[in-house]
Specification:
- There is one protein chain.
- It contains 2 helices and 3 strands; from the N terminus they run αββαβ.
- It is an alpha+beta fold.
- Strands 1-2-3 form a 3-stranded mixed sheet.
- The longest helix has about 50 residues, at about 1-50.
């Protein structure tokens, strides 16, 4: 009888451990997939900015968080260039929103 109870307790503990291990590998996989998606969004926005051939857009930094939110920072020479960068980011697939911290650098 003790062997049966010990076996049942052992099986329950082993099953719980397997379930936790499975959850961890799933969350690691999901994290990796999110990272790839975020990197792809960042790369696509950067490529579109470069394709515009606007010199001041080269000083704009792009980052994407896990929710598809694009963060733009850096400097632009005109408000129009900064607005263009925001427009490009907004019109990129899988972007959920855009936050711009772009400053306008006056020509001195």
């Amino acid at each position: 009888m003790n062997i049966a109870i010990t076996g049942a307790v052992f099986a329950m503990l082993l099953g719980s451990t397997a379930a936790i291990a499975d959850q961890d590998s799933t969350s690691d996989s999901a994290h990796a997939m999110r990272f790839v998606k975020d990197s792809a969004i960042t790369t696509e926005v950067k490529s579109k900015l470069a394709a515009e051939h606007i010199t001041s857009l080269e000083r704009i930094h792009v980052d994407t968080d896990k929710n598809g939110v694009v963060w733009l920072s850096g400097t632009a020479s005109t408000r129009e260039a900064a607005d263009k960068a925001v427009s490009i980011a907004r019109n990129t697939d899988h972007v959920t929103s855009v936050h711009s911290d772009i400053t306008i650098k006056s020509a001195d």
